[in-house]
Structure formats: structure tokens, C-alpha cells
Design goal:
Helix content: over 70%
Number of helices: 12
Order of helices and strands: HHHHHHHHHHHH
Radius of gyration: 18 Å
Low-confidence stretches: none
CATH topology: Na+/H+ antiporter like fold
Strand content: under 5%
Shape: globular
């Protein structure tokens, strides 16, 4: 019930809430800051998976949790990264554009990368990953709701202005509930691996935020652009990570499998790192 009904609906609703904040200009305005966008895209699609692979390979975690960490790294940023960029005084249009584009690209990249990770870390015990099927599910649960949200914004802006606040709050509540459900269902795995898993996810978050700033500084980008790139590099869509993990194990179980635990834990540890970062960047901008 959770995997086949509740989780897909929650993910679709959250992606719909993302779509309410997007306009077609978010996909075309990248031409206004091509260098910043290119760095952010490279960090998200190339650097993040490599850093996650290095951390996962160095630390002792079970194969399922290793796959879960990699799935999280393959996921794009979500609404959270856009909100944090706004609070930190970042370039919000840049953040939104990166989220929008990487969300669409992930439909093509995630299925193949997940299949590779499953085979690499789980070996002979790896479940079969239907790459095409996973891509179709991601399209239906991410792209379609986003497009519906964008369509509603374009045609009914007055309605959207009234519902955006409540929809965002509901999306946050649903995300918290699915995180709790994933941890509760795998509480033995969670508590048994938390001493390793928690630091690993915090390290991934810290390293990517730092590399986002470093790459921006090397490119001589503005403070606001660097802030957005750093957050887009270091903050991932945990809900999508949980959903993808559940999808690849759905045939074997109706419950949320252990592979979803890293994304669930990340939903907690992410704020331990990103909130202080936001206050620091906000203060640095005013100084």
C-alpha cells in the first residue's frame, strides 16, 4: 500500500508543488548566466555522484545502504534547495532553473545510474532493474506533475497565488511523514547503521556545499550565484530518493525497503548542515 499507492501520490504532489513555482522562462533564462548554469549542472550531474561513490566506497555500509546513498546522489535538487537559496540571499532564478533542468534530465540519467549502482554494490544479490520501466515511472511521477503545475500557473495565476502557500505546507508535511515511515519500517537497519550512515550523509552534504563554493570562486562568480550553485550541488530531493529506492524493490516487498533509509536519514541531516550554511551566507552577503 505504501509503495504502490501512498508514496507515488506523495511524490507526484510534491513535484506538482514544484511545478507551481516554475514558468517556461525558467528553462530558457539559462542563457543569461551560462557559465554559472554550466558549473551548477556539472556539479550536480558529474561531481556529486563521484563524491558519493568515493564516500560510499571508503566507509563500511551494507550494499543496500550503499545503493541508497548513490540513488540520493543521482537525484536532482527539489523545492527545498530553491527555498534555501531564497533565504540565503542566493540567485533564486538560477536555483530554480537548475532544479527545473536537472529534474527533467534525471528522468533519463537516474535509471541507468541506479542499475549500475545496484549491480556494482550488490553483485549476485542485485535485483533486476527495469531501466525503461523506471524511466517511465519517473516521467509519470515527476515530469507530468511538474508540467501540470506549470500549466495551472500559466492559465490560472490567481488560483495559484492562493493555493501555493497551503500546497507547500502540505508537501512539507507529506515529506516528513514519508521520512518517518521509511525510518520506522527499517528501524533496526536505521539504528544499526546510523553511526556510519549519519556521518557519511553529513560529509556528503558538507563536501558538496564546499565544492559548490570552490567551483564558483574559481569561475569568479557573484556571491548570490555561488550561494545558489552551492545549495543546488549539496541539497538533493530526498523524496525522489525514497521513491526510486522503493521502485527498484517494489516487486519484492510492499514495504519501504532498507535502500530507502539513506534518503530518509538525509531528510533530517540535510537541515543540520544547510540551515547554518544559509545563515552564514546570508550574513556574508550583508557584510
Amino acid at each position: 500500500m505504501i509503495v504502490n499507492v501512498a508514496l507515488p501520490l506523495i511524490l507526484a504532489f510534491i513535484m506538482f508543488s514544484l511545478g507551481l513555482g516554475l514558468r517556461k522562462e525558467d528553462f530558457t533564462r539559462v542563457a543569461k548566466f551560462p557559465k554559472a548554469f554550466g558549473i551548477g549542472l556539472a556539479n550536480q550531474l558529474l561531481l556529486l555522484p563521484l563524491v558519493a561513490f568515493a564516500i560510499t566506497s571508503l566507509l563500511t555500509v551494507s550494499p543496500e545502504l550503499a545503493v541508497g546513498i548513490m540513488i540520493l546522489a543521482f537525484c536532482p535538487g527539489g523545492v527545498t534547495s530553491n527555498v534555501l537559496a531564497r533565504l540565503a540571499g542566493g540567485n533564486v532564478p538560477l536555483s530554480i532553473s537548475l532544479t527545473a533542468v536537472t529534474s527533467l534530465i534525471s528522468i533519463l540519467t537516474v535509471p541507468f545510474l541506479v542499475a549500475f549502482s545496484v549491480n556494482h554494490f550488490m553483485g549476485d544479490e542485485a535485483p533486476a532493474v527495469d531501466v525503461a520501466g523506471l524511466g517511465v515511472k519517473m516521467f509519470l511521477l515527476t515530469a507530468v506533475p511538474v508540467l501540470l503545475g506549470m500549466a495551472l500557473t500559466a492559465t490560472k495565476p490567481g488560483v495559484v497565488s492562493r493555493i501555493t502557500g497551503p500546497v507547500s505546507k502540505i508537501a512539507l508535511i507529506l515529506f516528513v511523514l514519508i521520512v518517518i515511515a521509511a525510518i520506522a519500517k527499517n528501524r533496526v537497519v536505521f539504528f544499526g547503521n546510523l553511526p556510519t550512515l549519519g556521518p557519511a550523509l553529513i560529509l556528503l552534504n558538507v563536501v558538496m556545499l564546499a565544492l559548490g563554493l570552490l567551483s564558483s570562486r574559481l569561475a569568479r562568480l557573484e556571491h548570490s550565484e555561488a550561494t545558489s550553485i552551492s545549495l543546488e550541488s549539496g541539497v538533493q530531493n530526498g523524496t525522489l530518493g525514497i521513491a526510486v529506492g522503493a521502485m527498484i524493490a517494489a516487486s519484492a516487498s510492499e514495504s519501504l525497503p532498507p535502500v530507502t533509509v539513506p534518503s530518509a536519514v538525509y531528510g533530517i541531516t540535510m537541515y543540520l548542515v544547510s540551515v547554518p550554511f544559509v545563515f552564514w551566507r546570508r550574513g556574508a552577503k550583508k557584510a
